[in-house]
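Q: Sequence in, structure out?
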Amino acid sequence: MTNEWCGWREATERALYGPDDGFYTRPGGPGPAGHFRTSVHVSPLYAGAVATLLCRVDSALGRPDELALVDVGAGRGELLTGVLAALPAEVAARLRPCAVERAARPPGLDPRIEWRGELPAPGSVTGLLFANEWLDNVPVDVVETDADGVARRVLVRADGTERLGEPVDGADAEWLRRWWAPSGAGDVAAADPAPDADATGGAPQDVDTTRGPAPDADALRAPAPAPAPGLRAEIGRPRDEAWAEAVRTLRAGLAVTADYAHERGDRPLFGTLTGFRDGREVPPVPDGSCDITAHVALDACAGPSARRLTQRAALRALGVDGRRPPLALAVTDPSGYVRALSGAGAAAELTDPAGLGGFGWLLEPVGEACAGLLRAVDAG
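A: Exactly. Output:
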């Protein structure tokens, strides 16, 4: 690692994906599961839900001769392995599973899984593209307001020491104005679409859709006060571009990403950049010793046909239910009751609105066939 000053995007790219000592690409490393639990690691129910969604995509596309499942940010292939185990044999026989991951292929992985370091070519995939906690690891620059309220790029060294650099300008400044500026700043706030309906087809569950009263004309004309010093933000433009590139790989089908997320008008005042190592949150030091992550502005990533909903609503629409089994089952089938109780506990963790259930899901169909697939059942 070099100890020269650079922006957080460059520093994170080197720290996570450096060819020799990157946190994710280091030979022999444990992968994400060695440092934090994603939904994939919590329970096979998550892979089962993705398998259910894949079957809906397959049906909507008319059961093509070859159906693709592209897992972007595949870790060590855990999600693809779980989906293959959960699929009906007829669907699995036509499936082309593909892992996109910059780390080397892990030993012992199912030989049916293609392993590649970059996305497939544009328009080459028919099926489902799924990215679980991928975008939060796409490196971004960090900005902080100085004593005059001017947003400046934060520079960092490999030991985590920071200083302020030049003011942000160009496309990055425009992204901040559009997607991170304080809510109520005229047309900027109006440009942010509300989350779409959930699987019930009604108002989104678990998502606050209130916008408050419209500002009056004088308020819109008044200049906004200068931001306070010390406010921080992450410039999500590289994630918008990465997601758009991922969606473009589809010829027809559905692209889904699930991640830590926040909405415009409710962005954290001091950003979300943090580190993880050995299951604990740690300071983000870009020396290759820890994961470096930041929450995702999924509303900025969303294309014109995209829908946003919570993981809780999405998984319920796919049959993941955290309700306890009836006590009567304990009398008629004690072992079945224990299994059902265990499954309900895992489902409850995946759908907890204060935890994983509060994650954002972004669904973007390519072609009309796969629009509205999660509206097919009641998310309850």
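Residues 183-215, 376-380 have pLDDT under 50 and may be disordered.
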